[in-house]
Specification:
Distance between the termini: 91 Å
Number of domains: 2
Oligomer: single chain
Largest sheet: 8 strands, mixed
Structural class: alpha/beta
């Protein structure tokens, strides 16, 4: 009887130990935090670089990993759950913000750009000989830009060259090279602006049309997209348009190229001229690249805010990313990426 009692007691002790081990394992499993899911961020083509920088640095500071993709339907993808957050470089509408959190994280501007030779000027050619040095095109007015980005009544489009004959309002101090007459002439000039993209692909384009009071969708509907479909980022477009396809002779001769008008974010223009023959044209006398104060106070017509948008019921990991971007460390990251932080540096 005593033997059986000891046997039962030993078995009970074994069961107790096993139960304790199981309970301890379950407690440890409950207390250990499961890894945060990857944050999916979508951007238009002009904000992809910023998204990539944010994704790389957020991992370095201990936040969740991110996956950054380019999309033409960022806000819809956010609402449909295809993205956890999106970067936006235009002002969202009330309808777009329904069910969405909006966080301002940076400032930027859209720069009007031309090729370096048109900016610097060149020699006026008469019978093949250089006779007069021209000033170059360094300034445009808002009205001139509105005319350039819209289709004026009576204008003659040449779809082969993608340019139209301008009226004499274009910067009267500048002479531009005409391929038709093979010389520098004052007016009319052949003006080409091939940067037409599908609506939503580049927020920089949307900013221009909104600021000029033009309907982007209708203005671009009958104009062929210029982009090679493989080009999705601003720097790729600039390099392709101004570097790979064009020939730029020295400024003491006529350029073998039509005057080209384009646009790009201020952030990319902080580095683009180091690699591509482009310059920023002032608008109404303001150059946003050299005058950041004009972006902060909004006197530059194409100033813009950069937003991070998330769903109202965003996850803890997305909220942590948002808080980081608004913190001093996050703002320094944004400034290092070429964007203007929310508070102007003294």
């Amino acid at each position: 009887m005593r033997f059986k009692y000891r046997e039962i007691r030993a078995g009970f002790n074994v069961v107790s130990v096993l139960l304790a081990i199981i309970i301890l394992f379950l407690c440890n499993s409950c207390s250990s935090k499961s890894p945060d899911p990857m944050i999916k961020i979508e951007t238009p083509g002009d904000l992809y670089y910023l998204g990539s920088v944010i994704g790389e640095d957020s991992t370095n500071v201990g936040l969740s990993q991110t996956q950054v993709n380019v999309s033409e339907n960022t806000i819809n993808d956010l609402k449909d759950g295809k993205a956890d957050a999106v970067l936006l470089g235009t002002e969202p509408t009330a309808a777009e913000l329904k069910g969405i959190n909006e966080y301002e994280i940076a400032l930027d501007a859209v720069c009007i750009i031309i090729d370096e030779n048109s900016y610097q000027g060149g020699q006026y050619l008469v019978n093949g000989e250089a006779t007069v040095k021209t000033d170059g095109l360094k300034n445009l007015t808002s009205d001139e830009l509105k005319d350039l980005f819209s289709t004026p009544v009576g204008s003659a489009w040449d779809w082969n060259g993608d340019y139209y004959v301008r009226n004499p309002l274009l910067d009267p101090k500048s002479w531009l090279f005409s391929q038709s007459s093979l010389e520098w002439i004052k007016q009319p000039a052949l003006v080409s602006h091939p940067f037409y993209f599908p609506v939503g692909e580049f927020d920089t384009q949307s900013v221009i049309f909104q600021a000029l009071g033009l309907n982007e969708k209708s203005e671009t509907a009958d104009k062929a997209d210029y982009l090679d479909p493989k080009l999705h980022l601003e720097q790729e477009v600039i390099s392709f348009q101004y570097g790979n396809q064009s020939y730029y002779p020295s400024t003491n001769s006529g350029q073998n190229f039509e005057f080209q008008l384009g646009f790009a974010s201020r952030a990319v223009m902080t580095i683009a001229p180091q690699h591509d023959p482009v310059s920023v044209v002032s608008v109404d006398g303001i150059n946003p690249l050299t005058d950041p104060q004009s972006v902060y106070d909004g006197t530059y017509k194409f100033s813009r805010k950069i937003y991070l948008l998330t769903r109202e019921n965003d996850s803890d990991s997305v909220a942590a990313l948002t808080n980081f971007l608004k913190s001093p460390s996050g703002q320094k990251l944004i400034a290092d990426a070429g964007y203007l932080p929310l508070v102007e540096a003294n």
